[in-house]
Amino acid sequence: MGKPRILWVEDSARFELANLLGPIYACNKYELMLAEDATAAQRYLDSVSFDAVIMDIRIPPGRDRQWAKKYERAGSDKASAQLGLAILFWLFQGNGKPRPDWVRPEKFAVFSVEEKYEIGPSLRELGIFVFEEKRPGLRDTVLLELIEKVLRNGHGNGHIQGK
Amino acid sequence: MTKKATARTNFDPREPNAKQNCSIMSTELDLHPLLRNLDPSYLPIGLYAVTPEGCFVFCNEHARRLLHLPEQGPLTQKIGDFYAQPEDRARVLTHVLQAEAEGSYAQKQILHFKVSGRDLYVQNNCRSLRDPRTNDIIGFTGSLVDITEEHEHSFVNKTLHQRVADLTTDIGRVLHANSSTLVMVHQALDTALGALGPNPFNHEGLPSGEEIDEALQRQAQELTQAVAKLFEATNLNQRKEALPEVVWEELEERTALLRDFVDRIPVQESRANALRVVARRILEICERVPAQKLPKELRKEVQRAAASLERLTARISALNARAAVIQMDYTIRSLREFIITDVRRAEKQQRVRLQQLLDAAHKQLTEFAECSRVKIRFAQTLPETSIFGIERDLVRALANLLHNSIKYTWHRDRGQAPWVTVRTSRQNGVLAIAFENWGVPISPEEIQNNLIFKLGYRGQWSKDRGRLGTGIGLTDSLDVAQKHGGTVKVESRPSRPRSSVTPESEDYFQQPFITIVTMFLPEALE
User: Fold this and answer.
1) Residue of A7, A46, A159, B466 with fewest CB within 10 Å of its CB?
2) What chain B residue is nearest to A140 in terms of C-alpha separation?
């Protein structure tokens, strides 16, 4: 059985939040993948199964026209477009394809600057209950702890092979 | 109507004799009874006449509707009954009489009425009616126009304006305080960097990814060698006496990561922090070893190497933070200047030398350029050229463009420091100040649709490699240029166009672009 496969959707992963990856790589327990925009996130979610997905809400669209249009319609502003939420709704509620078996709300968590009251109703609608707000003073192990929490909730026992 | 009246239905007041024709018309024609005996009720404005005490003598249909009075018949109400503050009537009449004493009439007074419990704001034009023989006041007459909606909007607008002005001042103060905080943070980081020992990089700026990996590899190798020496110098039993087997297994795993961290950690920007965690863990393991259980010198060597690696990773983290602070410092100062433009004291336009403006802009960005390790080259400068304008705004506008070109410059191959070129020239009698850089692209659609000039908009590729920004710089620069009679133009194209790579290609925007942002300004001639 391989290491649990984790997807972090975050456009600041290599910059302001790069320190959060340190403990994850240092512990060497997870296979971590990074998506820095909505296009990359969709491609991963469409083709790979994950044991845990940590999602940022304010992400840029990337090259895909579908996400670029949503972004432009919302005023080309990450905060209003909330493409992270759009991806979650796309994944859970309708993209014309049957939902993959591995996609269950307990395998998802949101890690974003929004306060809970802002996106709480949407997350409840999706059945996602693990949420961490980005704020100053967070330890650099916060991402690692979030992943471990999701894995406990999802009873992740390693990814489904071969999707 | 008579024949003459029919002809006059083609009446055009623009005709030269129209007025004269009008008066001829009124005496000659057999007018419609409605015109001959024009009833003020038809007028689309409230009209009234009251006694000096305020009793209604006349109130047309419009005024009756306004005041919720009976549509017809005599009125028993007084106009004073409608004032929200009854004592206001005396003040209004005083104003009416004062205006008349000065030879005019009271116009456009705003009266606050209460009609059936609701607020009504009316615009009142009023004059007194006097006995022609005695000149005694026999009443007052006037017009009423309902302006309740406009009044409420105006009140809301005034409140909003005041709020915006207050907020702008507050934001200016907050941003000023933030700038001070950034100064403090910058100094603290400089202090921390000083305490971390000698700088392993041969410059003071932000090291590149390759430089960081090289430095990390050197230190990681020292540590792995120190750990390997410890293993070689001890046997299994000695090690078990010092620490549990599982800890030694962990130490081997950590060492393996140190050896292969480039392959195992694909995200270059997180390698330093990952190795910091490893170094710290190895130090913790060493501290757990009881005295005398392992060769002291070898254990100390491991600790020294782990501490060196930890210090290096701390330095890298501090350098990254300092670079972000320097970038944010200019952004916040520029944002503050932009926000308080409308509330600060107006400054006079004056003749300013172009070189003076460029020097001031350059000075603001020297540290940022040094930290980013981007050189600024001034080419083709125009000596003794001047611009007429507000120096503070012009400096900010030029600094914004220079800041962008530094920020969006990519680093080239090893050994060749990147640069930004600033060129000044005359084009069609206008001064052109061009900022050219090599690096982040701007898409043709964003330029053609003027998106890049939209307040708050950041280019599609502007977040490349974590570049911070507010989306205000270009907007502000264009605004300043236009206020000075100029403009800003942007071009962005691949630095080495290839026929195989078209705008539709996946990697079209992954190649470096040459971007030229030019500010055009009228020259101040002698």
Assistant:
1) A46
2) B273
ipTM (interface pTM): 0.85
Residue A158 lies in a domain: no
**Contact present, A143 and A8 (Cβ < 8 Å):** yes
Percent of chain B past pLDDT 90, that is, above it, reads 60
User: Residue A137: which pLDDT band, with cuts at 50, 70 and 90?
Assistant: confident
Strand order in the sheet with B419-427: B375-379, B419-427, B430-439, B513-522, B487-494
pTM (two decimals): 0.72
> Domain count of chain A?
1
Chain A residues touching residue B270 (CB < 8 angstroms): 13-14, 18-22, 25
Question: Under a CB-based contact definition with an 8 Å cutoff, are residues B45 and B145 in contact?
Answer: yes
Mutate which: A15, A31, A72, vs B, most B CBs within 10 A: A15
Q: Is B435 helix (H, G, I), strand (E, B) or coil?
A: strand
Q: Using one digit for the tens of pLDDT, what is the confidence trace for A27-47?
A: 999 999 999 999 999 999 999
Report if residue A160 sits inside a domain.
no
Read off the CATH number of the domain in which A103 is found.
3.40.50.2300
A119: containing domain: 5-153
The tens digit of pLDDT for each residue in B259-291 reads 999 999 999 999 999 999 999 999 999 999 998
A162 occurs within a structural domain: no
Chain A residue numbers touching B320 (CB-CB < 8 A): 18
A77 inside 8 A of chain B by CB: yes
